[in-house]
């Protein structure tokens, strides 16, 4: 039974009731026995765990250092296209948003890449909207043109086929990030009224295709604010645990983005405050000490400063969320608003001030390639 079918058998209202029914005894039991136990995870994301946040943070820090050392990997998104065929209510790339649309040329991509290389980046995340302009061949060419420039290439694009993922992986692609946005099927239909992304089944089954293609790493995530964060955290953890069991050779990463403003009037119906986000990060780390956890520039300077020692393993820096934003087209349409505008040098200084070492290169990948 694939994960989508398992998910359809879970009653969300019953799950939420189980979460809020957890007691301090359940929380202490979970803290005493870290690991992939869903019952313990429910306790750690429950209201009963709030008084234990300092204990959770301490354990999360310990587990993260045990597995990843005192390092924070740095990456940066490079947006290739803001043209999109979807009507996602929460996204700046919504096809109904009449604003500057652009797909970078090969020369423009290389100009952006040179700037980022000069800043020290070795991990580049290519991002596009879902449209014919950002086809498989276009993405493949962008990756091949840059694989000798950067040591680690990732993508966040439209869902692809198993064969397409396999081709890209064999040609140097390291990681695919794909966000389910929300695991709530009914709300998913509301937020995605038109376009290829409106197909819930096809999107969630994409992770199966990634696994079958044998990717080195896949990244998952939900957009916090679209549904109750506690149930979303539970489903995200269940999904990663399912994939890890089935596709055990693949590494896994999660991102925890909160909704940020776009051009338009959409407001998320669910509030996720800073304390909620920290509780989620610590709970995920205690659930899976091998899980990579990323925090983007969507978040405020203050929160990113304080989150470094609490379970995060990678951070973006100096991000622009529009195609050409680093060099040639600074006024093109953005996907979302950046809240931490510090330079990469300022971010690495902050990381060092927290007692951690910023890492620009994925040495694990380098050694695999040399071997």
Structural notes for this entry:
The protein is an alpha/beta fold and 371 residues long. It has a single domain, classed as TIM Barrel (Alpha-Beta Barrel), CATH 3.20.20. It is built from 16 helices and 9 strands. The chain has an 8-stranded parallel barrel with strand order 1-2-3-4-5-6-7-8, surrounded by 4 helices. Helix 5 (53-68) crosses helix 13 (274-287) and helix 6 packs across helix 7. The longest helix has 18 residues, at 229-246. The chain is globular and about 60 Å long. It starts with a helix and ends with a helix.
Secondary structure topology:
Elements: H1 3-8, H2 12-20, H3 24-32, H4 38-44, H5 53-68, E1 71-81, H6 106-118, E2 123-128, H7 136-146, E3 152-156, H8 162-170, E4 175-177, H9 185-191, H10 200-204, H11 206-213, E5 217-221, H12 229-246, E6 251-255, H13 274-287, E7 292-295, H14 301-307, E8 314-316, H15 344-353, E9 357-359, H16 363-370
Parallel strand pairs: 1-2, 1-8, 1-9, 2-3, 3-4, 4-5, 5-6, 6-7, 7-8
Helix pairs in contact: 3-4, 4-13, 5-13, 6-7, 8-11, 12-13
């Amino acid at each position: 039974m694939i994960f989508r079918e398992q998910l359809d058998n879970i009653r969300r209202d019953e799950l939420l009731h189980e979460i809020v029914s957890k007691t301090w005894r359940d929380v202490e039991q979970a803290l005493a026995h870290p690991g992939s136990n869903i019952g313990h995870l429910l306790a750690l994301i429950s209201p009963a765990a709030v008084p234990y946040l300092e204990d959770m943070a301490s354990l999360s820090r310990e587990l993260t250092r045990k597995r990843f050392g005192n390092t924070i990997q740095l990456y940066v998104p490079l947006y290739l296209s803001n043209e999109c065929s979807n009507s996602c209510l929460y996204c700046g790339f919504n096809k109904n948003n009449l604003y500057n649309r652009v797909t970078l040329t090969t020369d423009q991509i290389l100009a952006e890449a040179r700037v980022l290389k000069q800043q020290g980046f070795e991990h580049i995340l290519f991002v596009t909207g879902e449209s014919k302009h950002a086809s498989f061949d276009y993405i493949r060419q962008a990756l091949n043109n840059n694989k000798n420039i950067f040591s680690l290439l990732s993508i966040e694009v439209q869902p692809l086929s198993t064969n397409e993922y396999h081709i890209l992986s064999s040609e140097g692609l390291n990681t695919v990030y794909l966000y389910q946005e929300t695991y709530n099927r009914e709300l998913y239909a509301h937020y995605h009224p038109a376009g290829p992304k409106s197909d819930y089944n096809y999107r969630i089954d994409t992770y199966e295709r990634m696994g079958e293609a044998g990717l080195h790493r896949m990244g998952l995530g939900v957009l916090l604010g679209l549904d109750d964060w506690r149930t979303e955290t539970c489903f995200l953890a269940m999904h990663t645990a399912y994939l890890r069991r089935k596709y055990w050779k693949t590494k896994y990463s999660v991102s925890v983005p909160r909704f940020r403003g776009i051009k338009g009037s959409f407001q998320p119906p669910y509030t996720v405050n800073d304390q909620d986000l920290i509780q989620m990060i610590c709970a995920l780390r205690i659930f899976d000490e091998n899980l990579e956890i990323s925090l983007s520039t969507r978040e405020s300077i203050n929160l990113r400063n304080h989150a470094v020692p609490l379970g995060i393993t990678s951070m973006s820096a100096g991000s622009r969320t529009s195609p050409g934003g680093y060099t040639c087209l600074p006024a093109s349409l953005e996907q979302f608003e950046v809240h931490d505008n510090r330079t990469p040098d300022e971010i690495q200084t902050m990381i060092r001030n927290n007692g951690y070492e910023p890492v620009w290169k994925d040495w694990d990948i380098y050694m695999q390639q040399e071997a």
